[in-house]
């Protein structure tokens, strides 16, 4: 192994778990479940990535209820059938020596009343406040309807309860822990952000109030798992899904939240760096608040692991780990075309991100066999042993 990437291959203690290296596979929405239930093609996809050496796999965003969904092909974790489907995934991952956390997810205001799954529930689209996101892209709704004004949730504890139930189901499904999706402008992020949350009760306004939903969700999920098997993903720069606050407010909010996460002794906080691709132009300007998340937040945690996500190259990630600027590197895009990413890095095999087929990044209607195209058909390299 080249000494440049060696820091990526030191084991890492994560609560009671030991990661075999520092290569983490990010949650990636690939939309290959049918009727929200994980299937054998999903099992094969995760098995390949575990066999390819990833220490820890974060499941694709997994919906905690049918209400608050956007896509029909994203999996959920509210039913026994989904739990059974996930159990086959977690068994396969464990057989290949990896660990897997369930990323639990509610999209809040960026669901749409006409989205097929949301419609089935007969419930409105809930969010912290009745403020619509600007823009809107719905992969499975005809035309360009744009986001709608959501219904302000009367008691946010109802949504926290859904996260708790999802955590219970994740345990039944054999996951090793859970990651709360607190990033990318979805429900938890909407509570944090003053441009999406203008509540005047204990869930809005001050930093303490806006972080309450995230922290209470963490506490609810920690009661199920113990805090040392819970992680949270945060994207302080915002951008995607029309969130993002002025810099001072951002720093104040996220420094407070991450410092509280340190007190709660979670397994890790996954912090997403600024990424151009996640920063839409809204009303003629880029939406995100660009800043250096390592500089800004690394020092807020000591015992809690700091996972860094977005746009990392392997040598860069190894350097950041060597310098103590991150504990683990979370790769997303590179995992699409390289099931054996960790092994490739370890054994110096080439990476070919240019072969990634964007037209099959997301699944669409079709048979299970058709879902495999651009999903499980990227080859691994061959290795001697
Ligand atoms: C997406 O499918 O576009 C997506 C889903 C979840 C994320 C980010 C992007 O966190």
From TrEMBL:
GO terms for molecular function: FMN binding; oxidoreductase activity. Gene3D superfamilies: Aldolase class I. InterPro entries: Aldolase_TIM (IPR013785), OxRdtase_FMN_N (IPR001155), Oye-like (IPR045247). CDD domains: OYE_like_FMN (cd02933). Pfam families: Oxidored_FMN. It comes from the Eukaryota. Residues 8-350 form the NADH:flavin oxidoreductase/NADH oxidase N-terminal domain. PANTHER family: NADH OXIDOREDUCTASE-RELATED, NADPH DEHYDROGENASE 2-RELATED. This is NADH:flavin oxidoreductase/NADH oxidase N-terminal domain-containing protein.
